[in-house]
């Protein structure tokens, strides 16, 4: 044995997407070609995580440049200009409309106009207020409103950039051997285009950090972060549902209970200081969600526009959407318990969040941010991811062209209702397409690109490699224990990587 040779088991090398994915290999030609057999993964300063973070910063900056026409003038001169240039953002408009320009305190002070209180969850309201404080440091309260709105958008953009980097880095580190999958997040065009429309990135960042903590087996930290994310946006709490079913199948109820207690405690710590002294302002988000009419991006809007249904009566839609969501969750639970192999946590997390968006009364363009990191973990295949992203980019353009049409008066510049309905159908179909592939991977685990590398559940934490203790139907006869070898597939690509590692 040569001197200095270690007997310790060697960590398997990082998975190189350019060796497994033809689209990734073709795209890599722009930066020098696929990963070579003599390349050293993670060598030098240019580690995968650092590269992903820098790419995320660059794409976020491009998204800011895309908003430049609005920043210069379109937000402030007529309604249709910000739509025809596809650079709309809620942030500068709500600076005045939600009382930040007047120094009002969210949830405690009533607003002027239709909204009596701020209609956002508490942690998002705090984020908005912090951006307002930063704005006040660089502008005068007596200055022109346009300049203050621009400064407010910039302050929010800077804070959201931090969130974007956290999302990319956490996604890169969640699957230890697949850090390059996070480039799906960093390079996602819909991510860059919608990042500064609203404040969704805060909840997405907390959720991505929670997924990373669960991967590392830190269940308390996972629960705390999910609780904080739920205090910023409602959707992260849905991830606890798939986790419950997976822990049920693996018999890991203690881990789930710890996570649940952490989430509940963190949510209460954030909400109680507002809930108790200002209950009316605190509950505005929840009452607004119930009373909100059928809105942009949902299939309910297509039905409403085509048939005239649900006009002025939101209660049937609330009931129908809840029923559809319950049915979808039941189907996801059945998949988790009856699949021949326990589905990966990221797969079910993606499915439950997608189900919530698809059945909701509104599917705003920025909701794609909720799905991008989960999609990169659930289905890291460039072709399928880009098909979905293309649908979302088409919808991103479609909604602004439709709003331009409705606000341009007799000029009718933009996309009429029929065209907008087609755009809605397209982005719904794109999301359903990705969901179908994730379901197929769960039912046919040999088709799962993550498990093709010999892994079980890299995002599963305590579930990774755990034996099943409760399964349903066919899964009971084909269940796998942690001691059984996991089959490796991949054909020529897999063999090529093994040869490269061994030096042949």
UniProtKB/TrEMBL annotation:
Belongs to the glycosyltransferase 87 family. Its main location: membrane. It is a multi-pass membrane protein. Signal peptide: none annotated. The chain crosses the membrane at residues 45-65, 120-139, 151-170, 182-214, 220-248, 255-276, 320-338, 385-405, 417-439. Residues 476-486, 495-504 have a biased composition (Basic and acidic residues). The keyword Cell wall biogenesis/degradation does not apply. This is Glycosyltransferase 87 family protein. Keywords: Cell membrane, Membrane, Transferase, Transmembrane, Transmembrane helix. InterPro entries: GT87 (IPR018584), UCP010361 (IPR016570). Residues 476-504 are annotated as: Disordered. It is found in: Cell membrane. The lineage of its organism: Bacteria, Bacillati, Actinomycetota, Actinomycetes, Kitasatosporales. It comes from Streptomyces tremellae.
């Amino acid at each position: 044995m040569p001197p200095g040779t270690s007997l310790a088991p060697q960590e398997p090398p990082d998975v190189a997407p350019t060796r497994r994915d033809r689209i990734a290999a073709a795209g890599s030609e722009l930066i020098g070609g696929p990963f070579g057999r003599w390349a050293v993964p993670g060598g030098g300063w240019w580690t995968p995580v650092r590269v992903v973070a820098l790419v995320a910063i660059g794409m976020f900056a491009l998204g800011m440049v895309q908003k430049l026409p609005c920043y210069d003038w379109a937000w402030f001169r007529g309604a249709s200009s910000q739509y025809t240039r596809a650079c709309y953002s809620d942030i500068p408009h709500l600076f005045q409309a939600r009382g930040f320009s007047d120094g009002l305190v969210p949830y405690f002070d009533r607003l002027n106009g239709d909204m009596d209180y701020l209609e956002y969850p508490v942690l998002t309201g705090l984020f908005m207020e912090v951006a307002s404080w930063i704005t006040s440091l660089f502008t005068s309260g007596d200055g022109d409103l346009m300049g203050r709105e621009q400064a407010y958008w910039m302050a929010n953009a800077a804070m959201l950039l931090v969130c974007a980097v956290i999302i990319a880095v956490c996604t890169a580190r969640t699957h230890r051997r697949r850090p390059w999958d996070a480039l799906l997040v960093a390079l996602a065009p819909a991510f860059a285009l919608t990042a500064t429309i609203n404040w969704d990135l805060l909840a997405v960042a907390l959720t991505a950090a929670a997924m990373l903590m669960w991967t590392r087996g830190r269940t308390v930290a996972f629960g705390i972060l999910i609780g904080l994310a739920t205090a910023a946006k409602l959707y992260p709490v849905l991830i606890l549902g798939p986790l419950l079913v997976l822990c049920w199948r693996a018999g890991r109820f203690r881990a789930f209970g710890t996570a649940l207690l952490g989430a509940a405690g963190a949510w209460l710590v954030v909400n109680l200081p507002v809930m108790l002294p200002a209950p009316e302002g605190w509950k505005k988000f929840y009452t607004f969600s119930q009373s909100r009419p059928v809105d942009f991006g949902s299939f309910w809007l297509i039905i409403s526009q085509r048939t005239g249904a649900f006009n002025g009566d939101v209660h049937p839609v609330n009931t129908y959407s809840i029923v559809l969501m319950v049915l979808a969750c039941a189907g996801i639970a059945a998949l988790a318990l009856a699949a021949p192999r326990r589905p990966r946590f990221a797969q079910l997390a993606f499915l439950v969040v997608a189900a919530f968006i698809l059945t909701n009364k509104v599917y705003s363009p920025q909701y794609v941010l909720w799905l991008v990191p989960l999609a990169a973990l659930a289905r890291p295949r460039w072709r399928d991811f880009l098909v979905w992203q293309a649908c979302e980019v088409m919808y991103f353009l479609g909604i602004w062209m439709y709003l331009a049409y409705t606000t341009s008066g007799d000029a009718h510049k933009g996309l009429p209702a029929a065209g907008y309905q087609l755009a809605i159908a397209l982005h719904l179909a794109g999301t359903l397409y990705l969901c179908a592939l994730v379901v197929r991977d769960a039912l046919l685990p040999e088709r799962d690109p993550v498990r093709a590398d010999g892994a079980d559940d890299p995002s599963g934490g305590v579930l990774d490699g755990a034996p099943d203790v409760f399964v349903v139907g066919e899964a009971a006869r084909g269940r796998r224990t942690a001691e059984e070898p996991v089959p490796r597939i991949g054909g020529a690509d897999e063999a090529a990587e093994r040869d490269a590692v061994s030096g042949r």
